[in-house]
Amino acid sequence: MKMSLRRRFFIGMISGMLFLLGAFGIMVYAMISRTLVRQFDGALLQTAELLTAVIKEDQGDEQGEHNETTKPRPSKGEIEFELNIRMAPEFHRDQPSGYYQLWNSREATIAKSPSLENYELAYKKPSLSLPLYHKIKLPDHTSGRVVYLLFLPSHEDSAVDRSAPAERYLTLAVARDASSLYKQLDRFKWILVAAAAGGLILALTLTAVVVSVSLRPIRVLAEDIAAIRENTLNQRLDTNRFPKELLPLCGRLNDLLERLEDSFDRERRFNADVAHELRTPLAGLRSIFDVTLSRPREAADYKTSIAKGLTITESMQKMIESLLLLRQLDNANLNLDRKTVHVKNVVQECWQFHAACAEKRNLTLCDVLAEELSCCTNEVYLKMIMNNLLKNAVDYCDEGGHIRINGEKRDDRIHLSISNTGCRLTIDQLCYIGEPFWRGDKARSDTGTHCGLGMTLVWKLVGVLRGEISLNITPENLFVVSLVLPA
Amino acid sequence: MRLLLVEDYLPLRESLFQGLQEAGFAVDATGNGKEGLWYASGNDYDVIILDIMLPGMSGLEILKTIRTAGKQAHVLLLTAKDTLKDKIFGLDLGADDYIVKPFAFDELLARIRALIRRSYIRKSPLITVGGLRIDLNTQNVFRDNEPIFLTPREYALLEYLALRKEQVVSRTEIWEHVYDFASSATSNVVDVYIGYLRKKIEKPNKPPLIHTLRGRGYLLGERA
Fold it and tell me: What distance in Å separates the CA atoms of residue A232 and residue A224, rounded to the nearest whole number?
């Protein structure tokens, strides 16, 4: 079974929420983290730039004051680092929170803050235009940030002289304790995770509710469909009760119900007709036997009764066989077993069964079929068609009337027509002729001779043979059945 | 008792006609609706057995027409239509009973007898006149507990007189209810059969049960 819609919705919603919350959290964290680090780095750069301002290259014999530095007093051409440690207590060894280290172009340490004591900051070479920031471990093992600044110490011109030789450039690293910043970021990270988890739980709950509410119309639809029984097929799904997404489905289901209702009605009518058609001959049969057995009789009387019963049974058998054949013809995989059939031979063979009756009624047959007229079809079915049409023509033709059979081959098709005089039907009645058990005489007084299935069979058989049938009543009151069959 | 049978299916009509005649009824039968109406309108039938789907005119149309004309004959609808709607429609139109095909012939007879009893306002199938006892169901007749054997025609005559016991019944009425349309009997046949009946049911030293009322008809009863 495929995954349920509820599960699909649920998984989809949760995946979406997870992705959105995760992306949003990461984005917020990245933005805040970047802002705070930038602020921190900005302050660090400011300090570094302040320090560069007090670092000068020696221009003569001047001696710079330098307190608590590890370096000896510089001579001419050497670097002079004038920093009053009292003005920058953060670099003092007693309360260390800031660190600096100065390297010359040969990566040799020129100076470093007392707070570093024996510790050395790692050397990194920044570009001339951009300071370099790094996260580092400070001597007290706390997290800190360091900025590396490449600069040109100059007494007169503190601006970067891009034409100055590279060996005159110094690298200053200023580091500061950033543990509170990282702790703050860490805390913020966990707040975001907790918020995301809370949001996810809320989303789960909401999703469950939304999915349940959204799928309710489907449940209602299923209940409505389940409530429809074979005796309530006239019910239709109320489209006003469903959201517009389900309306196409409701529409199709209503169409299906209509087709089902039609089909059931047809079946019911057919069954009722069958029952009705069988009741009268059965009543006759039972009545004959009941009356015969009601008192002792002569052998001849019993013989007469049995003969009458047999006649009725034969007509009932004919009807049942027709019904079975109708059912058989509904089978789509019918084996047609086509072969070349001479139409005239078929008509003549069928006429033999009705010739006596036609003679009794003084009917004349006009057969204008060509000897060579033939078609590739199922011979048995063609005989059944002809037999039914000829029987109807003989039985319903007026006394002393004419029956005419025409046939020709045109456009690779056989066109046949059987007509009889004295038609008692009206044009309006023609459309009912193919319906089972329909008879022009509503009283069905011909029960036993005609069961009302002959033309239904003809209609079905012509369809099976991929032919066409049409009926007409001419102004001369001729009833004409026209057949077109593939040659 | 005289019945009209209107049924278009020939084998059924023939067998019912035979069976009803053998059961002692005078039966007129036709398979056409218009003919059926003609029979029903022109004669005084005790029961009309009417099929619904008939050529010429439907059974329901016949029923409606005869009821509109004020005919009081009991009508039993005989049909293949078995839905409740069909039954209600037929009964509401003035039918007295409804029997669905196929049916047992005995059931049809029982229903006809019940309708006949209803015609003559009798609930019991037993009629007693003095020492004479007639069982309408079994068609057995006893006089002082002794069985009397009657021909079907004699029984039909006695049954009609018994159903109208203590009433004067004219020869015409007897003719209309005991003889069918095709009967070839002559006008004095009623008197002849009354004579036959008297011989079989009257006993010496017992008061007569069949009385002749000159110019009026006959009466079955203990006293004229």
Answer: 12
Query: pLDDT tens digits for A309-338?
Result: 999 998 888 888 888 887 777 766 667 778
> Total domain count for chain B?
2
With 0.95 as the threshold, say if the pTM is over it.
Answer: no
Domains observed in chain A: 1-53+181-227 (no CATH), 56-177 (no CATH), 244-329 (1.10.287), 339-486 (3.30.565.10)
- From residue B169, alpha-carbon distances to B41, B57, B162, B216 in Å are 22, 35, 10, 7
3-state SS assignment for residue A68: coil
Chain B residues within an 8 Å CB radius of A441: 55
Cβ of A276 and B81 within 8 Å?
yes
B155 close to B24: Cβ distance less than 8 angstroms = yes
Give the chain A residue nearest B18 (alpha carbons): A291
CA distance B20 to B76: 14
- Specify the amino acid at residue B41: S
For residue B70, give its domain range.
2-119
Q: Do A448 and B11 touch (CB under 8 A)?
A: yes
Q: Which of B14, B18, B80 sits opposite A279 (nearest CB)?
A: B80
How would you label A254-281 residue by residue, b for 16+ Cβ within 10 Å and e otherwise?
A: eeebeeebeeeeeeeeeeebbebbbbbb
Query: What is the number of alpha carbons within 13 Å of residue A427 lying toward its C-beta?
Result: 4
Structure tokens at B22: 């053998």
Low-confidence ranges of chain B (pLDDT < 70): 182-187, 224
User: How far apart, in whole angstroms, are the C-alpha atoms of residue A160 and residue A285?
Assistant: 129
Question: Could you say which of A285, A290, A443 has the minimum Cβ distance to residue B8?
Answer: A443
Of the residues B119, B149, B164, the one at which a domain ends: B119
Structure tokens at B27: 């039966």
pLDDT the model gives residue A13: 80
d(CA A350, CA A356): 12
pLDDT (0 to 100) of residue B189: 81
CA separation for the pair A304, B7 (Å, rounded): 21
Q: Going by C-beta distance under 8 Å and a sequence separation of 6 or more, which residues neighbour residue A458? A: A384, A385, A388, A389, A434, A469, A481
Measure CA of the first residue to CA of the last residue in chain A; give whole Å. 51
